[in-house]
Amino acid sequence: MNEPSSLPRVPLADSIDRMIQKIGHLIAWSYVLLVLVIITQVVLRKGFSSGLVIFEELQWHLYAVGVMFGLSYAQTTNSHIRVDLFYSHFRAKTKNIIEILSILLMVLPFIAVIFIHSLDFVAESYRINEHSESPSGLPYRWLIKSVIPLSMGLLALAVLSRLYRDTVLLFKGDL
Predict the structure, then answer these.
(1) Contact by Cβ (8 Å): 144, 30
(2) Do residues 169 and 131 make contact, with C-beta atoms less than 8 angstroms apart?
(3) Cα dihedral: 154, 156, 158, 160 (round 10)
(4) N- or C-end of the chain: fewer Cβ atoms within 10 A?
């Protein structure tokens, strides 16, 4: 298991992060499937001059699943993009304060907006039984759209774990 080596240990947060990382490892297999679908599509298109629309759409869907659920994995492993120009020189307590404020003022509101608006998006897609516009495309468009609220929920859990970790570490020396 990939333990975030740069993060101090906080048992509850560590447990949540491990669970999210296990889900991330499971979801990562979607990339193996994605590569197989791409190879199949290329062979069909270049070798037999007949690609399939269903494979084109499946590629988009598999990539979307990997990226959307990969966000929570990146959060738990601290491998997301960050501008460390000044941050790396700050004391640990200052970093904890910045993390807490960033999570509360920017990350959680962003996740909440995406999550809340995605619910209607998925519900409407389900209600009208949305499917691909292509006759040979994939059915059940609501299924891929449901990845949005599910992945945002998992990301929220990862971010709350980080918020808990940073809060514990901020007040740890003051206890």
Answers:
(1) no
(2) no
(3) -150
(4) C
Q: What is the CB neighbour count within 10 angstroms for residue 14?
A: 17
Which two structure tokens, joined as six digits, stand for 28?
């990562």
Cβ atoms of 33 and 62 closer than 8 Å: yes
Token pair of 55 as six digits: 């494979």
Say how far apart CA 134 and CA 6 lie, in whole Å: 47
